[in-house]
Design goal:
Length: 292
């Protein structure tokens, strides 16, 4: 098969691992920088040009689209879809997953546990927003933040008011969420491929930090998910229609609560924590699905 990996940098761990795995399985593989793709719109003949050449003969693509280039990356993925090329992550799922509010909305009807969350346009209503999520402390999050940046814990109504005012002044859209204290600064990342959890890790924030992101100094270790956690992860990937998903969950006293669903989850953290070959699972998924 001929497989394209949409990635800005062939040296990134995830990209390298996917290339290696394609080669191991005897596939032809090309790393394509989606930002250097030109999308050609023409009746009956959707095409992509890359470095002045038309991209042809691809059976599948694996999108690895960074959050800062979601718009352009999604357009390139959609173009491959129009060309009939199988993609491990569809353009729609990719776009939906990039907005924390939209993805939570899409998860609400699938029986998946979620932290109580409020989105408001009227930030002067702080009292009632805080009451709705069960009182302080609350977590305030930028809708399009990543890697734990733009996620703030406000201990008092006064602090929450100041943070909301500040974000409002910057015209940044935020959600306000109940703080799940019992998760103890840890979360779970389940890596879902083709409707199955292929690896899971627990991430623990550094001392005194409620955010467990590895980019914020958190550490990770392999974990066995409970059947309930596994079900929440699989249902979340399905609700967002993602062939590959990194589902982040908090362990709470009322069961797993899904925080977000990543459509380009990194391989480095999960492979190093679990010693599993996740790249291989992705290539096997393509072999099962492309050209069906
Ligand atoms: P990002 O997409 O920037 O990683 P998250 O919503 O995943 O943002 O939040 C970052 C981290 O903060 C999570 O991994 C988790 O450890 C912690 N966290 C987020 N929301 C809550 C919450 N409601 N209660 C407790 N901890 C939270």
């Amino acid at each position: 098969m001929k497989i394209g990996i949409l990635s800005r940098n062939a040296n990134l761990y995830s990209t390298r691992r996917l290339v290696e795995s394609c080669q191991k399985h005897g596939h032809q593989v090309e790393v394509i920088d989606h930002l250097k793709c030109n999308i050609i719109i023409e009746e009956e003949l959707p095409r992509v040009y890359y470095n002045g050449k038309m991209l042809e003969g691809f059976d599948a693509i694996i999108p690895r689209i960074g959050a800062s280039v979601t718009f352009y990356g999604t357009a390139v993925v959609r173009q491959f879809e129009m060309m009939g090329v199988f993609t491990t992550v569809k353009s729609r799922g990719l776009a939906d997953s990039r907005d924390k509010l939209r993805s939570l909305q899409l998860l609400t009807k699938s029986g998946i546990g979620l932290p109580k969350t409020v989105f408001t346009n009227y930030s002067k209503d702080v009292e009632s927003i805080i009451d709705t999520v069960g009182g302080v402390p609350v977590v305030i999050k930028l809708l399009e933040g990543t890697q734990g940046l733009g996620v703030v814990l406000a201990d008092t109504k006064k602090a929450a008011t100041s943070v909301l005012e500040a974000f409002n002044g910057l015209k940044a859209r935020v959600i306000v969420q109940e703080f799940i204290k019992e998760s103890g600064g840890a979360d779970l990342r389940a890596f879902v491929v083709d409707g199955k959890v292929v690896g899971a890790m627990k991430r623990q924030g550094k001392q005194g930090e409620f955010r467990s992101n590895l980019h914020r100094g958190g550490t990770s270790s392999v974990v066995e998910l409970s059947p309930e956690e596994e079900k929440a992860a699989v249902s979340s990937a399905k609700a967002l229609n993602l062939g590959i998903a990194g589902v982040d969950m908090l362990q709470s006293s009322r069961g797993p609560l899904v925080l977000e669903v990543n459509s380009s989850p990194g391989l480095e953290g999960i492979e190093k924590a679990t010693h599993l070959d996740i790249a291989d699972e992705i290539i096997k998924f393509i072999e099962r699905s492309a050209k069906k």
